[in-house]
Structure formats: C-alpha cells, structure tokens
Amino acid sequence: xxLLMLVALSVCFSSCSDDDDGNALSGNGLTxxxxxxxxxxxxxxxxxxxGDDWISTMDEVTYIYFYNSTEGLVYYxxxxxxxxxxxxxxxxxxxxxxxxxxxEITLNYITDPVYNVYYLTIDGSVLTSNGTTFxxxxxxxxxxxxxxxxxxxxxxxxxxxxxxxxxxxxxxGDMADYTSxxxxxxxxxxxxxxxxxxxDDVTSIGSYxxxxxxxxxxxxxxxxLTKISKGAFENSCITDMYFPSTLKTIGEEAFAGCTAFExxxxxxxxxxxxxxxxxxxxxxxxxxxxxxxxxxxxAFAGCTVSSFPDSKVLEEIGIYAFTDCNFTTTLELxxxxxxxxxxxxxxxxxxxxxxGSGLTSVTGTPFYPSSEGSIYVNKKTPIGLSYxxxxxxxxxxxxxYVPVRCSSAYSKxxxxxxxxxxQETNDFPS
Length: 430
Prior knowledge:
The chain is mainly beta. The chain is built from three helices and 33 strands. Among the domains are: 39-144; 328-430. Strands 12-14-16-18-20-23-26-28-30 form a nine-stranded parallel beta sheet, with no helix packed on it. The protein has an eight-stranded antiparallel beta barrel with strand order 1-2-3-4-5-6-7-8. A five-stranded parallel beta sheet has the order 27-29-31-32-33. The radius of gyration is 30 Å and the shape is elongated.
C-alpha cells in the first residue's frame, strides 16, 4: 500500500444568475445548461419512526457545490434523533472535478465518493441523479466558509479533506513547508487526519505537514515523489509506509518518534537526514542494494535494522547513526566511505568490522562493539585519531588487521597502538 505516503486556498466565488430556462451564460464557456460556477444544488429527506415507547427522527440533506469552473464538492449531512438515546450527527464531503456534455454533467472524484453521485442531468433549475432531484440555489457566505475550510493550496499542490479523517494531496510539484503542524491549514481548520493520500505528480511532502498526528496509513500513488521534508511525520502513529522508487531524500526528523511501522528503504534514496528515524522503537527497516550517500546523526538510533545498507557510494555516517540497533555481527563499510562519526555503531553484537580504503576522517570513537573481535582497516597509512577508534574498555581484546608491510606504522600511531594485537593481511573486501 502506498504511502505515501500525506493548505489553504482562497477561493473567490462569482455571483451567478439563476437561469431557469437553461440558457447559456458567460463564465466557463458551457452551453445548453448555463454557467454552473457559483451554484448550489440541494436535496433533503426527512423521516420519523415510532415504537412502543420511543420516537426517532432522521433529517438528511445533500448539497452539490460547483465552486469554480472545474471543481466542486458533494456535502452530505445527517441528523438522527432518538427519544431514548439522544441525537447523533454524520457529515462527509467528496471533492470532484467535472465535465459537461450537453445537459449532462460527469463528476470525477478527487477524494472518496459520497452519496453515489457520478452522473447528473440538468433541466432548468432541477438537477437529477439516480432518480433524486436537486433544486438550484446560489453559494452564500456559510457555504463559502464550509468549502474553504475543506480544501486549498499547499505550495505547488492542492489539498482536500473529507470531514472524516482523510486528506488528499494532489498537484504537480512540491508541497509547502511549515514551521510546525499547527501552522498547516488543516490544523488551523481543526481537521482530523489519520490517512494521507499522495497524488501521482507530487514531488515533496512538506516540513511538519503531518507531524504529531495519528496517521495510520500513507497510501501513495506517486511516481514523482523525491523528498520527504524535515519533521514531515514526526511523532506520528504510522502503521504502514511505502517509499516510492523515486524517493531520494528523507529529511531531518522526518519520522522521528514514530512507532509500529515497517519500511523498506528503496534503492534510489541518497540522503537520510539527522534524526530521520530517531527513537522509532518498534519500527523495522530493511534495505536492498541502494544508492545511499549520506546517513545523518542519530538517523536510526534506537531502531530495529535488519542489516547495514548495501551501498557502494556511501560517503558519510553521522554520530550515533546506528546506536542501539543490534542488527549484525559483521559490519562491512564500503570503500566509498569517507567520514564516520562518534558512536555511529554502539552495537554490542558486532564482532567483526571491515573499514574500506576511502576513510579519511573519524570523529570521536565510532565503534562500541562486542567486548572482543577483529577489525580490518584497508589503509596503508594510519588515519590521524584524536580518540580511540573503538571502545577503550574493549580495545585490548580486539585484533587489528592492516595491509601487508603496514603493521609497523600502525604500532607507532597514536591510538592505533592501543589494540591488543596488530597483524598483517591481504584479506580485504573488494
């Protein structure tokens, strides 16, 4: 299931004159049925039921709004009153685009449909669908408020809410970034969000767009999504997340504090930001062969990771990136790796470490592995260290393997000489 997957549009409604005769009006070029923009169509139903000692009433109304020349929405409202149990309410909204052919209107839903309205026939001031008739009116102030609080713009995209728990992001480009979830238009309009649907041409999910909400699923049809921005789903309760093959960047804190979801990092992701999956205690991650270049500070700290990313182009691993992950006994770092940060691997299950030929910079003490083991360093010249490269409480129990004819240099180099044994070998991964 896809993710992907997860602002406010100020809509100006033109005043449209009612044309009961169905003559063509100016505005959107429609002929035969007049200009639909700015019109409201209403149908109502009322019922009452009696029991031995109770009475129930049902009052429902459905509005169809054509709020501009291409889009509209269906609004359904129901009120049930019971003499014994009080009153309950239900409401739902479905957004659509529409096309006109003669006196027929076809609705193409952006969100989940409601009230089974797809095809409409118009005759003067009456609209008919499946035998139900709707009478014509004009969008007023209260209607405008309802419409504007359930859809709008976010950056280069549009958003639509159904008054239940779902939000749809559609468009061609990036969502807007926000400084906090409270600044998003759906939060300002007090709209509950638990499902986020990301459209095919959306290229980014904005910063903090869905942070601190109970997002259950992120179905994504996106074939264009390249970035999930800073804090986009921070502290959300995500249970299902799909990363499309186009995704390249997972921003800082994008999923920090999320729980109980599994995610496969796809092959095209290049950058995982600081704290991207920090403290996702119950989250599980898997990788295939990938193109990761940068893994930020604390990126996977505290997560369950099945294995180390299989990337031949990885260049940087930040501090505490994989602390407390408990994912491997053998750690093989690629020759492309240039920089590794302090505490990057605090995993007491690691017994064997391979360091590639490209490493040039080490910050602090990157390895806190098992109490004893072997570390292979495929560099003829020792890297300058300011601290032991491996837990100083265990380093004496570890054997350091270096290229042939290089053991003398390592035995004289600061902190490299702390290893219990230094031996030469040509047995390094290619």
